[in-house]
Amino acid sequence: MEPKKNPKADLRKNSGLYFVVGLAIVMLLVYAAFEWKTYDEVNEYDISLNVEDQLDEEVPMTEQIKTPPPPPPPAAPEVIEVVEDEEEVEETVIESTETSQEEEVIEIEDIEVEEVEEIEDVPFAVIEDVPVYPGCEGAKDKRACFNEMIQKHIRKNFRYPEIAQEMGIQGRVNVMFTIMTDGSIGNIRYRGPDKNLEAEALRIIEKLPKMTPGRQRGRAVRVPFSIPITFRLQ
């Protein structure tokens, strides 16, 4: 059976070629659409101001006139005192302090300087005449009387610090002081286990009375003395 259509009239024969050509045309149109640019209308004209050049005219220049400062006042004329020839003017004569060979040099005798003896500290244990505590003037052994009166003074004025009792603090405070040449008490030093005990020991020693100073070779000297004060809880 023969086909009814002519093979040359078959449109599907070149359909692939037509598709490729059409696709290429569409892509060109899309690219052209993306690349298409539009610009606003711009009037091309010069917007600068028209200023007439007046080069021929000279511009006057103003100069600042500076006024010169006033001249300084004239200096006062010096008063020149005229001395007449008849008037005698005293001249100041400066005598030379240099000695001539004719003058005799007087020798000055050596000046004697009295040596001031330094007051030394003499320990209580070795001093010749110990300090006398008030009330021990008539005692045979003034050294033993001194120690006894010191102990009596400490017992009489002793007060245990309340804060130390509450904290249970006890111990020994070593006190050192000096009986000065006028019999007063000075140079008090102390060391103990607690500042409250030290303060009480200082208070006791400061209450010591004024004494008769100790003597060494017939002159008053300072006598250092040390004594322990014991604080003990019962």
UniProtKB/TrEMBL annotation:
Keywords: Cell inner membrane, Cell membrane, Membrane, Protein transport, Transmembrane, Transmembrane helix, Transport. GO terms for cellular component: outer membrane-bounded periplasmic space; plasma membrane protein complex. It is found in: Cell inner membrane. One of its GO terms (biological process) is protein transport. Residues 145-234 form the TonB C-terminal domain. InterPro entries: TonB, TonB-dependent_transducer, TonB/TolA_C, TonB_C. The chain crosses the membrane at residues 16-34. The keyword Cell membrane applies. It is a single-pass membrane protein. GO terms for molecular function: energy transducer activity. Belongs to the TonB family. This is Energy transducer TonB.
